[in-house]
Design goal:
Largest sheet: none
Shape: globular
Radius of gyration: 18 Å
Distance between the termini: 34 Å
Helix content: over 70%
Number of strands: 0
Order of helices and strands: HHHHHHHH
Number of helices: 8
Structural class: mainly alpha
CATH topology: Rhopdopsin 7-helix transmembrane proteins
CATH class: Mainly Alpha
CATH architecture: Up-down Bundle
Strand content: under 5%
Length: about 240
């Protein structure tokens, strides 16, 4: 069962990412491109989790920690910043900082020695990563910064979009869609909390819930049902 959950998450997220990139190619929009990058990271993280239930690979572990534990929420949140920000200069500046931070995190995770002898394929990575990745590793200190930024921007942005549309009393499908995205983002944030509390076995469940709710929210928010030109302000 543990092995099936990250596989299911990967399938959902890959489908989600393909749809977002396709929409970007059709319509453009920096928010769609950045969302697509964030979703791709989410998918890589889920695939790495699934692979690690069968065998050990230091590269796969590093990819899991980099894309799953550190970067994906921040990049998804950055996409929401581009969607909602009226000051493109601010959004671009934040993106530059995020890119630099991502490069720094990549350097640290791929240069940090791992304790491979502590790996157990019968346990989830989230339940044992503390024993594999040294506590003093700099990359572990960077993780909360990325996650807090991602949680605030993704959840806050989705709730703000829902509130704007609800206040205008238009396109209820987009209101509900943004609320579902917010719930999915909260599930991701809650998953990180569970890991820090030593309850890593529940991470895969939280990730699957996040994938389902965020994908469902996106489909609902971009549905043509009930769309009007007046509602284009908050269109994903």
């Amino acid at each position: 069962m543990i092995r099936l959950l990250p596989i299911a998450s990967s399938v959902i997220i890959v489908s989600f990412a393909v749809m977002v990139f396709r929409r970007y190619l059709q319509r453009g929009g920096a928010h769609l491109l950045v969302w697509g990058i964030g979703l791709t990271m989410f998918g890589i993280g889920s695939f790495s989790e699934a692979y690690s239930t069968f065998a050990w690979s230091p590269t796969v572990f590093r990819l899991w920690y980099l894309t799953g534990a550190i970067l994906n929420a921040a990049w998804l949140g950055q996409g929401t910043v581009f969607l909602l920000s009226r000051r493109r200069g601010t959004a671009r500046a934040l993106l530059v900082l995020l890119v630099l931070g991502s490069i720094l995190a990549t350097w640290f995770i791929f240069t940090t020695p791992l304790n491979a002898t502590r790996f157990n394929s019968d346990e989830t990575l989230s339940a044992q990563y503390r024993e594999i990745l040294p506590r003093a590793a700099t990359v572990r200190r960077l993780t909360p910064i990325f996650n807090i930024y991602g949680l605030l921007t993704l959840v806050g942005g989705a709730l703000y979009s829902a509130w704007l549309l609800w206040r205008k009393e238009i396109v209820p499908n987009r209101v509900l869609g943004n609320l579902l995205i917010a719930v999915g983002a909260l599930a991701l944030g809650f998953a990180s909390v569970l890991v820090r509390l030593g309850l890593g076995d529940y991470l895969y469940v939280a990730e699957l819930i996040a994938a389902i709710f965020m994908f469902g929210g996106f489909l609902l928010a971009t549905s043509r049902t009930g769309l009007s030109t007046a509602a284009a302000v908050s269109s994903p």
